[in-house]
Design goal:
elongated, alpha+beta, 3-stranded antiparallel β-sheet, 242 residues, two-stranded antiparallel sheet, 5 helices
């Protein structure tokens, strides 16, 4: 017996209106969920970045313990990397070069991993190739790079903002000199308030910066901060774009 497929047949497909309704619902859901997924992804990157900084802090403390409680003291280390010391004549910190390639080299016996010197959020942003941020650890082709900042270690910074060869207590005392106001907080009570390493950031008030940098912080308007006692916390900066 032959079946007549036309008898009592109801449509097995979607009508155009139904498809448009489904597409509209999917678009609405995507609009709602995408920011949530994006925020969650960035939170994950921020957590990895904070973990990197904690490892760096641990390595730094091990170095200090192995060197009579003194922090690295050879300023010429800033000159040994490709390009040497690079003051930024048009950057937010005109006479500063806080890049950390030298520290990655010095602390390598303790870290055994150059990858921790790169924040994943920086690598995926315009700052990933910014000359004020990116620094190679050697002149070799495809040499590992670094993307963090360490303001207290520079080539010719004022003595109140210069930790070369100091003990941790001396570093805190130096920041509490009346004339020293360059590293926030300006007058730390101890190592737990003394900043050692940060993610790069460019306040939106810095008119000398390229427009693509201004107001950019890699972690949703703020940055992770490694303090001299080894702990890491997130700092929200009103000078950054959200």
């Amino acid at each position: 017996m032959r079946l007549n497929h036309n008898q009592g047949d109801s449509s097995l497909g979607f009508t155009l209106i139904e498809m448009l309704v489904v597409a509209a619902i999917i678009s609405i859901l995507a609009g709602i969920l995408f920011p949530v997924f994006s925020t969650a992804r960035e939170k994950g990157r921020q957590a990895v970045c904070a973990s990197n900084e904690r490892q760096i802090g641990l390595a730094f403390e091990q170095y200090v313990q192995d060197n009579d409680e003194l922090m690295p003291g050879d300023i010429t280390l800033k000159d040994t990397l490709p390009g040497g010391w690079l003051p930024w004549g048009t950057a937010i910190f005109p006479t500063s070069d806080p890049r950390v390639g030298w520290a990655a080299v010095v602390l390598y016996p303790y870290t055994r991993d150059y990858r921790i010197w790169n924040c994943p959020s920086v690598a995926g942003s315009v700052l990933g190739t910014a000359p004020e941020v990116l620094e190679a650890v050697s002149g070799a082709v495809n040499a590992p790079t670094t993307t963090y900042w360490m303001f207290p270690f520079d080539h010719d910074t004022p003595q109140c903002d210069d930790f070369w060869g100091m003990t941790e207590d001396q570093a805190v005392a130096s920041l509490n000199q009346p004339a020293c106001n360059s590293v926030p907080p300006n007058k730390p009570d101890g190592v737990a308030e003394t900043q050692l390493l940060v993610d790069p950031y460019f306040p939106n008030i810095a008119r000398t910066q390229p427009a693509s940098y201004r107001g950019l912080a890699v972690h949703m308007g703020g940055r992770n901060v490694l303090y001299l006692d080894g702990h890491v916390s997130y700092f929200k900066d009103a000078r950054m774009n959200d």
